[in-house]
Amino acid sequence: MLLQTQLPQWTALGPALILAITALVLFVIDSVDPDSTDSALLAGVSVVGTLAALGVAAWFLAAGTGQVGTGGEITLFRDALVVDGMSLFFTAIFTSVAAMVFVASYDYLKDRPDQAEFYSLVLLATTGMALLASSNSLATAFISLELTSLPSYALVAYLKRNRGSVEAGLKYFLIGALSSSVFVFGISLVYAVTGSLLFSDVASALGDLDQSFRGVAGIGVLMIAGGFAFKTASVPFHFWAPEAYEGAPAPVSAFLSSASKAAGFAVAFRVFVEAFPIATAVDLGIDWVLAFGILAVVTMTLGNFAAATQENVKRMLAYSSIGHAGYVLIGLAALSAGAATNGDVLGASMAHLLVYGFMNTGAFLFVALVEHWGVGRTFEDYNGLAERAPMACAAMTVFMFSLAGLPPFGGFFSKYFLFASAIGAGFWWLAAFGALNSALSLFYYSRVVKAMWIEESDGSFELTSRPIGLYAAIMVAAVGTLVLLPGFGPVIETAQTVAAALFG
Amino acid sequence: MTDGPDAGSNLLPGLAAVGLFLVMVLAFAGASFPAPQGFGGDANVTASIGYAMFDIGNLGDVGAEGFLAAFLIVAIVLDVAIDGAVFLAKREEGGSVVTALTDGGRDLLDRSREGPNAPRSERGRDAPRREGGDE
Amino acid sequence: MVPAQWYLMLSAAIFCIGLFGILTRRNALLFLMSVELMLNAANVNFIAFSLQWGNVTGQTFALFTMALAAAEVAIGIGIILVLYRNFRDTDVTKATTMRW
Lengths: 504, 135, 100
Prior knowledge:
The structure holds 3 protein chains of 3 kinds.
Chain A: H1 2-6, H2 14-32, H3 39-63, E1 74-76, E2 81-83, H4 85-108, H5 115-134, H6 138-156, H7 163-194, H8 199-207, H9 214-232, H10 240-247, H11 250-275, H12 278-283, H13 288-308, H14 313-333, H15 342-373, H16 385-388, H17 390-404, H18 410-424, H19 428-453, H20 468-483, H21 488-503
Antiparallel strand pairs in A: 1-2
Helix pairs in contact in A: 2-3, 2-5, 3-4, 3-5, 4-5, 4-11, 4-15, 4-20, 5-6, 5-11, 6-7, 6-11, 7-8, 7-9, 7-10, 9-11, 10-11, 10-14, 11-14, 11-15, 13-14, 13-19, 14-15, 14-18, 14-19, 15-17, 15-18, 15-20, 15-21, 17-19, 17-20, 18-19
Chain B: H1 14-29, H2 45-53, H3 68-89, E1 91-93, E2 96-98, H4 105-114, H5 120-124
Antiparallel strand pairs in B: 1-2
Chain C: H1 4-24, H2 28-53, H3 57-87
Helix pairs in contact in C: 1-2, 2-3
């Protein structure tokens, strides 16, 4: 109410603008002093910029910018971009994750050359994610998707002299390039049958589409879903994830598996709900709800079973992140045309992504800390770690139990609401698969906890330093995971309100 | 490098592409589009693209959607491309940056002998090494 | 005037030729070329259906697709260059530190 009367409309894009400007400031710093290894300056500028964007997004969200109570969504650039509660909610997720990653990178990258590139690429990727969540046209959605993808490719290959990192970067790039060409071909088929790219126009054109075009439209929608499957690391474009997350520097893995996945879901939610409304799509015989239901079950089962067989902790986390993509897909799979429960289901998915943003980032940053110490990567290497670093291991325990969905942690509440809303919407089978998979996941998450606290260490490693940035980031993530316990009421309420607005 | 005479040995996965083509042909064959609407005889298409790209006026004679947002985002994407590509392509030698724009061929050959086969400590400097991986 | 569905056939053919290249070739540079082919298959659709619907949305978006293809290749070549420095080859299957 207050924003819409006092600030010009374009300021609704404030978070994305702040992120882009911060990246440009880093360019300037880099060009003034190209060989700078001043981590404090670079990380400091990045953290300040990201926190400012987070603050603005949280302020807008609290003030109700773009929500139903204050005059509804704000559209900009002739409807190409839209700011509403959902885009602000997702922007808050992206910026929180990015801020934690920056704080952790302060130690992880210390004394390396090319630090400015790292920070500016992460910032630009975050900008892309914020724009992706605000896209209201297939054109801006595709271009913002590329803006998140391109820096990610370079970031995965960031350790240029490390074979694993370069190989991971190549594989990520190849699958990414393939999936983006599939995505754009899908867009071109949708344009072929509807003659427009704006979500609302696509939806109305699909509404009175001749039945003879259903084949073209169907393949187009499938291909667009394939593009999102890549971004969210879901079946069938999931197999890059273990390679990329394992080879990439751990802060980048944290960023990709939390923020990048959330960005993929943000745009997928908007595209499928707004551009291909369920009732219209089902009339045409393009039942994407059922397709996402099958994908959700396959993705969560495959991710969890593969995670259970891993020996390498980072790889286990990568597969577990595929499993979590499966849970979040329930948000698209438990929808039905015109149902009042749609907002609850989608909102629960968004809340899970927020909690996941904290707990998963924390888990990968713990791996970064362990890499920083030079301890190995397998479960055995973690044996007895709790004796040396009890604080960090306690935080890791919180992340693991929260990811598994054990009761006293944030992950329990988000999963509970997700499965409960799926049951409420009549999709009990999705909730059943989700619960079964969560039970399985407890097995491999608890292996990490067991290794850290119960197993005896073989005494072969020395913890030489206590990197303050990494510790701080891990503690922030742990506190975030725990604070979401008492704070979960407002979170789920906000998420379900803004999600319901999408169906309005 | 690759794609020598043995390139034909793995044509089998290509059948998937042929299969996809058949599926697409079947799906597209049913579509019967009406006669194209066209742009109108005296419409200036090039000017319309320009108007559409910058959201000027009512976007020219031919209808279109506004692309100014897309244009601005592409500007940032190209920033990313130059930042990322220069970062990846440049080489550091003894702390100073050597541009990637030199003729790399022979130079690369000489360097590579100490590249991949260099002792572990040399490579491991970049990152925590992976156990039992590359040799 | 060629009926519009023939453009769909043409673009499907180009797209599948690109996909064929990706599935059968192991060289990273050829992979990039194949991806370009697939991106341009989409451009054929955009331009053909721009005329079909009588708006320039498709034509304008095709320009953006080309710019993005260029940006993607810039990053891609950078990664392939780094790969070449590390592995002395652009064969994607030679880079086998990890399981594929």
